[in-house]
Amino acid sequence: MRQPAILSLFLAALLSAGVGCTKKETPAEATPDINRQLLPQQAQPISVLDKTFALNTAATFPFEIPAHSAQPHLHGMFQSFLGKSRDSNEASNIDFVIMNQEQEESFANNHPSESLFSVEDSHSQAVNFDLPPSFAQPVKYYLVFQNPRGSKNSKTVQATFRVEF
């Protein structure tokens, strides 16, 4: 008789412990924006730059990644030519960098600055770069093309860049 009584007490204890262990869920509005789900994919890529331009010292092209972009990927290419000719060789080399807003502000104010991505002394370059995800706010980036210091020749640059998500 003793075994059924112990078994009954044990089952009663288990049942009463299970009743008190209910977890309340936090409402969705209480979750901070940074934890909101990132967009897995945008419908269309964004064209960032599709242009032929003259480069004397530097040219900057801003672009923006929409908020909640999970895997923005910048890709494209540029080719530089000496003056208006179509000769693309070492004499037509340029520098290229990708900067975030803080880096570009330092660069624009002639302060030493780092960059997210850089290519030095190139006249033809393909670029593939994974940008950091954006969270609650859109993020601004800059493509910067520079004529190397000491170069007195104007260059012509043909560039095509886009961002896919």
Walk me through what this model shows.
The chain is an alpha+beta fold. It has one domain (36-164): Jelly Rolls (Sandwich), CATH 2.60.120. 16% of the residues lie in helices and 40% in strands. It contains 2 helices and 8 strands. The strands form 2 sheets. Strands 1-8-3-6 form a 4-stranded antiparallel beta sheet, with no helix packed on it. It has a 4-stranded antiparallel beta sheet with strand order 2-7-4-5. The protein is globular and about 45 Å long. The relative contact order is 0.28. Residues 26-32 have low confidence and may be disordered.
Short description:
The chain is of the alpha+beta class. It has helices at residues 2-19, 101-108, and strands at residues 46-55, 58-65, 73-82, 94-100, 117-122, 124-130, 139-146, 155-164. It is 16% helix and 40% strand.
Helix tally equals 2
Main structural class: alpha+beta
CATH-defined architecture: Sandwich
Q: What is the CA-atom radius of gyration, in angstroms? A: 28 Å
Helix content: 10-25%
Number of DSSP strands? 8
Query: Uncertain regions: pLDDT < 50 for 5+ in a row?
Result: 26-32
| Biggest sheet record | 4 strands, antiparallel
Question: Any idea how many domains?
Answer: 1
Strand order of the largest sheet: 1-8-3-6
* Average pLDDT taken over every residue: 82
Q: List the secondary-structure elements in sequence, H or E.
A: HEEEEHEEEE
Distance between the termini: 70 Å
The CATH class: Mainly Beta
Q: Which percent range describes the beta-strand content?
A: 35-45%
